[in-house]
Amino acid sequence: MSPFDEGVYRAVLSESQSAVRDVAAGAGAGVARTGQALKRLATLGLVRRVAPGRWEAVSPRSALAALLHRRRSEAETAFAGVESGFADLSRLHRAGQLRSDPGSLVEVLTGQEVMTRKIEELSRSVTTHLWTLDKPPYLEQVGQPLADQVETAATRERTRRGVDVRAVYCLESIEPPGRLGAILNLAAAGERSRLLPHLPLKARIVDRRIAVVPLTGGSKDSIVLVHPSGLLDGLMELFEAYWERAEPLLAEGPEVAEGPSEEELVLVRLLHSGYKDQAIARQLGVSVRTATRRVAALMQRLDAGTRFQAGVEARERGWV
């Protein structure tokens, strides 16, 4: 909307109905130019003609909201087109690089500072997918309240934007004290989380365009960045295969009446994973005696005589 059209619109807004000549006089312009401005405003849905030579404004709340929504949709469509074109150009560039230099398929990064900076950069760039195969060791601290809060907030923000956030954990992932509770918080924030007894490697796949994989099993010494290629396709297939095999950490269905408390859910998961009372006590930060008492209370609630029966009953109730 030009400054002149805006002035005409404001003039129409100030009256219940306006004659073209009156609007033109207020705008200090000719009747013909003012009439053309009114037609442009009508095209935008901001005014309507009620009689020959007479116009009234549409409610700004509804008209401008509709116009804003339309402009936003147009901008989002244009932006999606730019992103698609950018991705096509990037693939073309990458394919050319691979033909001339197959070594550019991967980047090897060493040094904790360099690796941490790159991982943070990739984390900030996530737009569509964040898939993780999780196992120790970790570059960052885990199980620490501040670090867990930052990770949970980031997950909540990503899922709010519609990012597909999925993670497959293994028993090693939940060994650090407090780690299982942090993982459950991530699930509550929108992450879809599953558990396997064992994972042979750790990996993080960002937007299905790049994967981060430790070079030597851990992530303390060096990592590899895998760019679009058959190797990246294989890593994505591998993630999907482990995802299908893994057990959900939270029930992936309707909420169950009289479901478990957060503590009971943690206990069920630990029992389901084969943890003994001493390991459960370490996870919960309590004494072994307290852990034993809480396990007994859970089994009583589930009317289970053994830990195995407790797991079966929890599954039948939809807790796991």
Structure explained in plain terms:
The protein has 320 residues and is an alpha+beta fold. Helices cover 53% and strands 16% of the residues. It contains twelve helices and eleven strands. The chain has helices at residues 3-13, 20-27, 31-43, 60-100, 112-124, 145-160, 179-188, 230-245, 262-272, 277-284, 288-301, 307-316; strands at residues 18-19, 47-51, 54-57, 106-110, 129-134, 164-170, 192-196, 203-206, 210-214, 222-226, 247-248. An eight-stranded mixed sheet has the order 4-10-9-8-5-6-7-11, sandwiched between helices. The protein has a three-stranded antiparallel sheet with strand order 1-3-2. α1 crosses α2 (20-27), α2 (20-27) packs across α3 (31-43) and α10 (277-284) packs across α11 (288-301).
Spatial extent as radius of gyration: 30 Å
Unreliable stretches, pLDDT < 50, 5 or more residues?
A: none
Query: What form results from the Cα inertia axes?
Result: elongated
Counting DSSP H or I runs of 4 or more residues, the number of helices is 12
Structural class: alpha+beta
Strand order in space, largest sheet: 4-10-9-8-5-6-7-11
Compute the average pLDDT: 82
Give the strand tally. Answer: 11
- Main β-sheet, in a few words? 8 strands, mixed
Report how far apart the termini are. 56 Å
* Pattern of helices and strands: HEHHEEHEHEHEHEEEEHEHHHH
Q: Level of helix content?
A: 40-55%
- The share of residues in extended strands comes to 15-25%
